[in-house]
């Protein structure tokens, strides 16, 4: 009964938040600000997304933990996590925002230890706990700095302050918090090891909680926009994280671990978009990634079966000529489109769209022929139109401050995207080359970037595995 009540309640809240977001964004309704909360297009839209993810996870968890000895405890902490995330999304007062942020982490810690007899689950929870406390201290310092220098205690009042004195300080602190929350390198290891938790927890973490770093920067966009140092820090760390995570994903066999690495890469791409000032694009990315990742984790069992079928059939790689022609054609198509529509400012976001779309289309070629190429380009135009329409609608719905153009950021991000594509094609088409095997082994080990965090965690918080169990792992 408790699961049904929770599911029905979260579904009702999802509808209410979605309607509120649409009314505020499209009908001129006044934003509601009272008791430390603020109902804005961004906050209610994010809350609606969290409710939808929560509804899906609750329905899945109803079946997954049925009959578990600690089912009641799992339900209690899961509901608390959802309530905490919603409070964080809607909070406008600094103190309320910080308290809700801390509560999300502490309640999630209990879910990560739902099977405490698993050493890797303990290790992941301990790593997450340590990095979360650091992030919370940095967030508290940023909020105190903003309060002391601006006199404001509400996030919504930041847009009224204009340029802040020494704006770099709180912006850098907020960027560090987002990098820690989004599990960017080299503090990413805990995200790869939380797959030991129940699947419902992994889905909620990768589809909802991990996005709080991006949501934080979107909420504090007025602080970040005029802070070039913070934007460069965000672009450099997230860009390197995206490069490493994207190529490491290719080398992993476990479906859940591949999804975890892809989350690191996707979060990095979202943070890169924020560093460029593409806040609306980052919001669209956040929404799309949440829905996809929840589906991917909850259907990971089916993915294993599909992968085995593909290996049995023995699908061949597309011809390299098809990849090159598709890359050139799609990049040209996107470039012409954005120039004609006067949408070209930064090159990097459109380059990312072009490369992703090209590689996806090329994977459908078993041989290169113009009879296959023309339908593929038609599909590319359809997907590009859908992407443009979604971005246009979201721009009408959300309002963000303008961020100054920085040409260096564009060149850096474009270089990272080209490097990812190059390494991907090299490993795919030259696996037997002299350096490919060594590179593959290093990438499969994640370049050993998590070793320091493991040693530090085991030193500060050694594992103590209990012989008692809390249920049969599923």
From TrEMBL:
A biological process from GO: electron transport coupled proton transport
Pfam families: Proton_antipo_M
Entry annotated with the keyword Transmembrane helix: yes
Membrane topology: Multi-pass membrane protein
Subcellular location: Cell membrane; Endomembrane system; Membrane
Residue ranges crossing the lipid bilayer per the database entry: 35-62, 74-91, 129-148, 168-191, 203-223, 229-248, 260-280, 316-337, 343-361, 373-393, 405-429
Record organism: Pseudidiomarina maritima
GO cellular component: endomembrane system; plasma membrane
Record InterPro entries: ND/Mrp_TM, NU5C-like, Transporter_DabB
Family: Belongs to the inorganic carbon transporter (TC 9.A.2) DabB family.
Keywords, ordered alphabetically: Cell membrane, Membrane, Transmembrane, Transmembrane helix, Transport
Protein name according to UniProt: Probable inorganic carbon transporter subunit DabB
Gene name of the record: dabB
